Amino acid sequence: MVKIVLVGYMAVGKSTVGKIIAEKLQIDFVDLDENIEKAENLSISEIFTKYGEIYFRKKEHLEFKKWIEAPQSVVIATGGGTPCYANNHLLLKATNVVSFYLKASIPELYKRLLMDSGNRPLVCNKSEEELREFIAKNLFDRSYFYHQALNVVSVDGKMPEAVAEEILRKLH
Questions:
Q1: Contacts of 65 (CB under 8 A, 6+ apart)
Q2: Which residues are CB-neighbours of 96 under 8 A, at least 6 positions away?
């Protein structure tokens, strides 16, 4: 029973890549953010607005821990902040966990988030310059936690299928 955990910044493709891996390995796929949204019957943005980030981070920790301790093999796509709160980074070191940091450069993240900022509560109201600055600072703050993953895979300029194949090769 293995847990394949994908960590990394917003928009690196954790959910997309995770679904591909799960399908190829024929195991379950879990998107922590989607699970929390279903449980709360609210979007992540709405949860942040209605209850605040601390409430969300508590829910996120409980959901992450539940899947790390689940009896079946599973691919887990974490939220961008998951490893940075509630000592979640320590769960990446569990014996049954194989973790991957999907790493993107600041220019790559900027390009991806510029196209998708409306769906992301932490960046939705930022100007282009504020977005670039936010990514650089936030990525610096989170870097230590992302690097707690056992493996690092660069996603710059790669299609999700190529990233998934690289991870699958590292698993064998």
A1: 91
A2: 1, 2, 3, 68
Structure tokens belonging to residue 41 = 């019957």
116-149 residue pLDDT tens: 766 676 777 788 889 899 999 999 999 999 999 9
Can you give the pTM of this predicted structure? 0.95
Three-state SS for 133? helix
CB count within 10 Å of CB 97 equals 16
Q: What is the pLDDT of residue 17?
A: 98
pLDDT one-digit tens code per residue, 73-102: 999 999 999 999 999 999 999 989 999 999
Per-residue b/e over 101-114, b at no fewer than 16 CB within 10 Å? bbbbeeebbbebbe
Interatomic CA distance for residues 41 and 128, integer angstroms: 31
The 151-154 sheet, strands edge to edge: 28-31, 74-77, 3-7, 97-103, 151-154
- Reduced to 3 states (helix: H, G, I; strand: E, B; else coil), residue 22 is helix
Q: What is the C-alpha separation between 16 and 89, in angstroms, rounded?
A: 22
**Helix, strand, coil percent content, the chain, rounded in steps of 5:** 55, 15, 30
CA-based nearest residue to 33, from 72, 62, 8, 60: 60
